Amino acid sequence: MFSLVEMLRYMRPQYCETQELFCERFLEPIFGLPDRHGNYTHIVFGDDGKYPNICFTAHHDTVHKVGGMQNVLVIDDVVSVADRTVSSCLGADCTTGIWLMLNMIEAGVVGTYVVHDSEEIGCKGSSALVKDNPFWLESLDAVISFDRFGDKSIITHQSGRRTASEAFADSFALAVGMPQLQPDDGGSYTDSNEYINVVSECTNISVGYYNQHSSNETQDLRYANALCASLISADWSLLVFKRDKTIIEELWWGRGWEHDAFYGDSSNDQITRATEYEDDGCSFAVDDIEDVILFNTRAVAKLLRQYGYDADTLIDEIGAKDINLGAPSVNNYVNKVCSNA
Q1: What domains does the chain contain, in order, with CATH numbers?
Q2: With CB atoms 3.0 to 4.6 Å apart as the test, which of 14, 73, 112, 258 could cross-link to 55 if both were Cys?
């Protein structure tokens, strides 16, 4: 099996040559060629010959700013980038997920395996795949992404909406024999979220990377190896499927907002926006996003922190300069804007 460390050398922003080379080397010998959207699918059948009821997913693009090869360091079983002036991130998101799936396939773990395209620019690959409604989709009870930071999460909510039941999360920890994995309602968004209207349980599992989307990103190899062994030896018959995919259950970090009340009911045009993003796979209008930030500043800050951002990194990303963090003038300005919104 290929080395995770070697795989992490490839910097793969969407549409770059290195992404193609990575797929040719690591994916195509096992998955074959991708579909028309760039997604790779491989099915490991059980003895009964039926289509599996579990789908395991990752994505082959990264958030590197440029493509190419990078050098990495391994110190005490922790991988990091060797030169931060060259590498904008390690790319364990989602290289580690792919590595786990390759090991599971080699071990013969029954399942449908999908490595999606374009996750980092709006889950374009997974969205298009679900719309195509492949023949194996109707057999699924669960979509399990390996794309979560840390070493403790079984995601039950993404972007404030329930995507997996507590019963499923508990049963997953039992099935893989890793009690440290716990239900986590603080998920952001990954490919499994695209399946929530057609598959009961859609989750994301911690794979042991930290400070993702930044040059400080690291990967814990000990945890990755332990998780890999647990996935291969798991008793998948223990999984429990409880979420009703037809019911929308919003969390919004405890605010209890109703879906239509926040997004607007398109049937009576409660909310309309004029300015929208173009060509980035996102249907939110700019004004909608701004409203979310203004009225949920702390929740958005926590979400950005989960993505690996700190204040200095965020300032650098958006090109802001000369911000005196914590200054009364900044806080007063934010309070004033929120009160007048």
Answers
A1: 4-238 (3.40.630.10), 253-340 (no CATH)
A2: 112
